[in-house]
Amino acid sequence: MRSIGELARRTGTKVQTIRYYEQIGLMPEPGRTAGGQRRYGDAELDRLSFIRHARQLGFSLDAIRELLDLSDNPDRPCDEANAIAARQLQEVELRIVRLEALKQELARMVQECSGGRTADCRVLHVLKDHTECLTDHDAVGGGPVDR
Questions:
Q1: What is the DSSP letter of 38?
Q2: pLDDT in tens, 3-24
């Protein structure tokens, strides 16, 4: 059995994140020692590793919840997991399209900079006036980055 600190180190996950996953039900409530310390076994280590890897691949917490449910029910059809992964792939592809548009716009802004005074700065001018952009990067690939 492992402490929460050891589980955090083994998976590269912050202790606060593990507690959060417990609060929202992605991780089961852990067993506890007589002194109240959380204790985790191999099953919890595997589950947290699964969650961490899914997060690294960009899956939302809701998608991870669905994938964990599928993993917990091994007789269900695999096509459900495939559909979730396909949705994630589509979202990644849309983000790539948006990032390419942003890259082009930023490269153009930098290239057009004359290096003069800030009053004449092309970068600042374009940032003030969205109509100066060649792409509607809010619309490309699904909207603003900070959603």
A1: E
A2: 999 999 999 999 999 999 999 9
- Which H/E stretch holds residue 31? strand 31-32
Long-range (24+ apart) CB contacts under 8 A made by 16-19 are: 18/48
Contact (Cβ atoms closer than 8 angstroms) between residue 126 and residue 132:
yes
CB atoms within 10 A of CB 115: 7
Distance in Å from the first CA to the final CA of the chain: 39
How far apart, in whole angstroms, are the C-alpha atoms of residue 141 and residue 21?
A: 30
CA distance 118 to 124: 7
Which pTM does this prediction carry?
A: 0.75
